[in-house]
Protein 1
Amino acid sequence: MDVMAQNQWKQEAAEAAASLAESGMVVGLGTGSTAEYFIKAIGRRVAEEGLRITTIATSERTEAQARSLHLPVTSFAEHTQIDLAVDGADEVQQHTLYLIKGRGGALLREKIVAAASKRWIVVADESKIVEKLGTLVAVPVEVVPFGWQATAKKLAETGATPSLRLIELGNAQAKPYITDQGDYIIDCAFGVIENPKETAHHLDHVVGAVEHGLFLGYAKEVYVGGPNGVNILRAGK
């Protein structure tokens, strides 16, 4: 796929979602390349239109970007509910709008923000749309570092092929990827997932797993950028 075209589609979807923000809102900011386009678009609206919002970031990287654009950043200590949140996705299942998220390493905070949002919008380019989850990517699972090997064994018992996410250091050396919460991520390859709810149920009950990247029932709208512009998918349609 043409990367330049793909980035253009991401940007168009993100800008369409940014038009939903209204003054006075608390806006949740996702993490990842598509979310970055949304944050830039919101920053332009604040600078050029005088849009007045407060934001809650899903990662330290996102918070740094928001502050660089002079977006006010708050926390759940001040606001326990979010009016509008926008985030990307690694896979979007058609019709159900079930998602896989977490390749950016922020799935725990992203799911907390999604659960606390009155309206949670996903932005993506059309390459992320699939008939069944697991077609393109594995399911990230955030785990506590203590005993992660035992946790990985339990994840394998759910039918996954688990792989600890690593950061290459050079000279054939690597270290575990560490999330903003100080956890590890184990990427769990299931192949095509026939029953996402059942898979999520099994992952929910693995001791040592903090959260997983199956986002089921959170998205009601997905803004999809493609060669014919932005198409809005809605759950059940």
Protein 2
Amino acid sequence: MNEELRRTDELDEAGAFMESILGGLASAVVDADLRVSMWNRAAEDMWGVRSDEARGESLMGLDIGLPVDELMSTLRHCLSGTSAREQTEVEATNRRGGAGV
């Protein structure tokens, strides 16, 4: 039992560490199926969707003001391994009606 509690504490600590890294690097992380696996406070603030509402959902289905369809080619290249990194600029509107970053 103590060993399981220690592992749980370690997992919680690792999760908090990953969240802090994510907070400094990106707003969201998606899996190969474009389902949101991580959504940080910056994403919540910018797009107006809470983490518990975004996690597990398809990025394509989130009503966040980001034209995800314009990003599909870039996303496919990165997810398939064709490209390790690509950059694309799109016009977006955040929850306050301003330009999304």
